[in-house]
């Protein structure tokens, strides 16, 4: 990858079934599945299971009009995703937030979540919710830092152990040490 001083982020909608989206979904699922299995069973995800589970979740719920998939690119290279699906007319669910390890630590996760929040507002959402697991401590830390609050369960997902929500009616811009100019101010 290029140096952080000369490389910029871009975030744009992507069809949920594009080759880029499929490759990022596979990378996301592999990482979170391997992490769970290594923690609980001391092994990586079985390749047959990986293929079965990746194929089983087509991501159709990320397609318009009730969904959205965003792809983050760093220096033009696709390195991450954030998806949305509307649960009801005013509630969006954040899904598949992921950055390749090689792109982490450069502010992309916050940009991706901010772009997803903007996308949720564009779909009419007044609030956004998500679920995550105990072992995804970095994700929980990110959501807390970005103003998400832990809440009661809103679903019965098998691996969900923490649920978060954020009110989207209060528009806030990202600013800070990285010099971000707004929710999608894509300078790195």
From TrEMBL:
GO MF annotations, alphabetized: acyltransferase activity, transferring groups other than amino-acyl groups
Superkingdom field: Bacteria
Name of the protein in question: GNAT family N-acetyltransferase
Domain N-acetyltransferase: start-end pairs: 23-169
Annotated keywords: Acyltransferase, Transferase
Taxonomic classification: Bacteria, Bacillati, Actinomycetota, Actinomycetes, Kitasatosporales
PANTHER family in the record: AMINOALKYLPHOSPHONATE N-ACETYLTRANSFERASE-RELATED, AMINOALKYLPHOSPHONATE N-ACETYLTRANSFERASE-RELATED-RELATED
Native organism: Streptomyces acidicola
């Amino acid at each position: 990858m290029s140096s952080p001083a000369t490389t910029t982020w871009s975030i744009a909608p992507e069809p949920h079934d594009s080759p880029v989206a499929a490759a990022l979904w596979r990378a996301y699922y592999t990482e979170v599945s391997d992490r769970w299995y290594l923690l609980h069973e001391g092994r990586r995800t079985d390749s047959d299971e990986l293929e079965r589970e990746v194929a089983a979740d087509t991501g159709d719920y990320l397609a318009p009009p009730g969904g959205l998939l965003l792809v983050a690119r760093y220096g033009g290279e696709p390195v991450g995703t954030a998806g949305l699906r509307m649960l009801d007319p005013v509630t969006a669910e954040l899904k598949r937030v992921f950055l390749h390890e090689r792109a982490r630590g450069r502010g992309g996760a916050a940009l991706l979540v901010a772009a997803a929040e903007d996308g949720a507002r564009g779909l009419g959402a007044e609030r956004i919710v998500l679920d995550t697991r105990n072992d995804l401590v970095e994700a929980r830390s990110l959501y807390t830092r970005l103003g998400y609050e832990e809440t009661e369960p809103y679903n019965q997902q098998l691996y969900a152990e923490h649920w978060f929500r954020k009110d989207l009616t209060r528009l806030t811009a990202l600013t800070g040490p990285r010099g971000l100019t707004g929710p999608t101010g894509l300078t790195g």
